[in-house]
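Q: I'm writing a short explainer about Carbohydrate-binding module family 13 protein for a general audience and would like to include a description of its predicted shape. Could you first generate the structure from this sequence?
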Amino acid sequence: MLGLAAISVLLAASATAQTYSATYLPSNAPAQSEQGQAGTNQCGSGYNQTSECQNAYINSIDDWCLFGPPEPGPSSTIGNTERIEVSWCLKSGYGTRLIPDGTVTGVYFVQTPDFVQITGVGDLTKINIPAGDEGGELDPHGADGNGNPIGGLVFSSAFGSLAQIHEWTNYVSDTEFCFRACKDAPNAPTLCQHIYDDMGCMWNMPANYSPGGFEQCQGDSGEPMGVYGTSTFYQGEPSTPSAHAAPATSSCTTFSTVGNGLAVSGASIISSATSSGASSTITSASRSSGASRSSGSATATNSASAGHLTNSIGWEQAVMTLGLGVIGSIFGAVMVL
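A: Of course. Here's the predicted structure. Afterward I'll give you a sentence or two in plain language.
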């Protein structure tokens, strides 16, 4: 067990870190919300695979984000880049980077009275996490009171109107992710505790992580991570207790997949839909009462130089159509002669 002095230092550091109280919406956020920030909180709309946006959203099974490295490469581990992570989102419209279709191979969204949570698995090398990286924890506090990433903001409309979430925790590795955003309340710091950064997703957020499943549920809040009755475990103690059991869920809706209809590779985007624009590819396989989802449009509209990318499929189809028409007319004339 840690000595009383060590525990007092941990508690004091935690209390000091949990002082971030500024409140923004995406529409009124400053360019940078914390000193030393590498990216921005003024992100615009659409999407951009080189975006430096550090706003994340967690609303539903087809509308959520993760923080990840801005650049690929073996040195872009979460441990090395935690201060400068950027936002990668499943849905277009936030001015962020998009999570490429095929990255996520299982995802589970749970809404409880106290928090919303995303857990899942996939190939997270597609959002610049190096293969073999066991990952790390991101939160709005960091060791010095600034966030990891510095200036990272999280928003959610799961509890009503879109609002900033002040207490959240996001773990991500090359194969697994989890993200919990706690509704503003006295118990939010405890339910979104950020001091267990070495313990990983399944210990901090026991839930479903099965590959091949896509599900949205209502759920119980369960026990706070690290709290066992009247005792609290602190990382680094000689004996680590088992994770809590996953809280009960209900009113679940299953889906065949989630995505944005876009195949994304590096800084380039290719639409897999028609010239009328790509749309969310989420498909409901079954539905029960009490669960809902949003539609999730994902259409690119602007130029890359302006921070967005243009869907050029429409004019290419027009040229092909005109060319086929001319060839058809010549062939018809030859047949008549």
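A: For your explainer, you could say: The chain has one domain: 4-336.
Q: Perfect, that's easy to follow.
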